[in-house]
Design goal:
Layout (H helix, E strand, L loop, with lengths): L20 H18 L6 H8 L3 H13 L3 E3 L15 E3 L4 E8 L3 E8 L4 E8 L7 H21 L3 E9 L2 E2 L4 E5 L4 E5 H4 L15 E5 H12 L7 E6 L3 E7 L2 E3 L30 H4 L1 H7 L9 H13 L3 H25 L3 E6 L5 H15 L9 E4 L6 H16 L1 H8 L1
Helix pairs in contact: 1-3, 2-3, 6-12, 8-10, 10-11, 12-13
Bound molecules: zinc ion (ZN).
Zinc ion binds next to loops.
């Protein structure tokens, strides 16, 4: 997987030009590291000086710090093309800090290690029906999987510098899971329950554990791994519940209280089926995995959520009429909701993730049909619907990537620890 870093130049000196020496070093480290992260090919020190406006001497000193801190490495030498020694390009290090991404979902646990270059180094998944377990017992199992991932990272010479945990629910301040309806969790203090389990090394300025909604982290995974140039999109995770991550100009839009993206509870038939949220006619009741399985005649098949989508895709591929009709209806309901979002936010890309990713060939046409019927500007501004680059389970990857992105954005925190 090629990592794509979408970087925004947000650093600037104060209006008076007065910048403390410490923060000047901090700014220079961040500017140079971001340049290396975002470059199409490994830049030389001279390239970096030209691109940043810093002097060659400053760039060299900064690069030396980054190499000493295992954030940057010299790429293999380029072939000789003429006289003199070819300049060595610089790349992100693959033996320094890494991020740990964890996911707890209805019927699986996942742990993922992503190194600074964006490569997924380890991705462990355990199937288990977590609904009968208490939150403490489910998180104990997750900690066991995290310990395996951590041991694998340490064997690679990596240091886990932070953890992001994806949960299928509403997350409040301090990682308190207010409600995860499909897990049956309410007001679960995840950081407290995981406090006895070492996850990542402490690094000042990098939170040791961030708990976030799985749709948000899956959207960050798509931002990390998706095609370059896709900075604004709607990422929809279709599982038993349906969540969305809204990415605007390279930034996840979380909403005022961090609870944006509950697309599963947009009404698509206001007088329709009752929903477990207390509303009626919510999208989840028509396009959620259980609704699709029921419509396809598979309600009693007792398929784990992570194999249900593959099973539906197999049946659709084979031309099973009930499955094709179920997916067409689900796609239409999804299209009604998507059209509303596109009308509101003027997005041009919709990414089908989670369990929707393998079903994209059948869901996309009805979604596009509803978009072209309902979006005011559809005649002039086309909308692309595509499967997620990471497919299902991008939340753990997105979580791990969000950790390494923090380091790229603020390398001084990591260097202070390393130094
Ligand atoms: Zn609902």
């Amino acid at each position: 997987m090629r990592a794509v870093w979408h970087c925004q130049e947000v650093i600037s000196a104060s209006p008076t030009g007065a910048v403390r020496q410490g923060s000047l070093r901090e700014l220079n480290l961040a500017v140079v590291l971001r340049r290396i992260a975002a470059a199409d090919r490994p830049p030389s020190r001279a390239d970096l000086a030209a691109g940043t406006g810093l002097t060659r001497a400053t760039v060299s000193a900064v690069v030396d710090d980054l190499i000493a801190g295992r954030l940057v490495a010299e790429a293999a030498p380029a072939p000789r093309t003429g006289a003199g020694r070819p300049a060595r390009g610089l790349v992100l290090a693959t033996d320094g800090p890494a991020g740990l991404g964890l996911e707890v979902n209805v019927d699986y646990l996942a742990a993922c290690v992503v190194d600074l270059s964006g490569a997924v180094r380890h991705h462990l998944v355990r199937r288990a029906d977590l609904r009968p377990l208490s939150p403490a017992a489910a998180l104990d199992r997750l900690a066991g999987l995290a310990a395996e991932a951590r041991a694998a990272a340490v064997r690679d010479g990596l240091t886990l510098a932070g953890t992001a945990l994806a949960v299928p629910g509403l997350v409040g301040d301090g990682g308190l899971v207010r409600l995860a309806p499909n897990l049956g969790w309410r007001d679960v203090d995840v950081p407290r329950l995981l406090a006895g389990h070492p996850l990542a090394e402490p690094v000042d300025g990098i939170p040791p554990l961030v708990v976030d909604n799985e749709a948000n982290l899956a959207a960050l995974g798509e931002l990390h791994a998706g095609p370059p140039g896709t900075a604004s999109f709607l990422h929809i995770s279709g599982e038993i519940g349906i969540g969305a991550g809204i990415v605007l100009d390279g930034t996840l839009y979380r909403g005022t209280r961090g609870w944006s993206g509950e697309i599963g509870h947009l009404p698509v038939q206001p007088q329709g089926r009752p929903c477990r949220c207390g509303g009626q006619g919510c999208l989840e009741q028509y396009a959620g995995q259980e609704a699709i399985l029921a419509a396809a005649g598979l309600a009693d098949a007792d398929l784990p959520a992570d194999t249900a989508a593959a099973r539906l895709a197999d049946l659709a591929e084979a031309g099973d009429p009930a499955t094709l009709a179920a997916l067409a209806d689900a796609g239409t309901a999804l299209g009604v909701a998507v059209a509303g979002v596109v009308n509101l936010l003027d997005l041009d890309t919709v990414v089908l993730g989670g369990g929707y990713a393998p079903l994209a060939p059948w869901l996309s046409p009805p979604v596009l049909a509803e978009v072209s019927r309902r979006v005011l500007t559809a005649a002039w501004a086309s909308v692309t619907v595509r499967p997620a680059a990471l497919g299902a389970r991008s939340a753990a990857v997105g979580g791990a990537a969000s950790v390494v992105r923090r380091i790229v954005d603020r390398p001084v925190a990591w260097l202070a620890r390393a130094g």
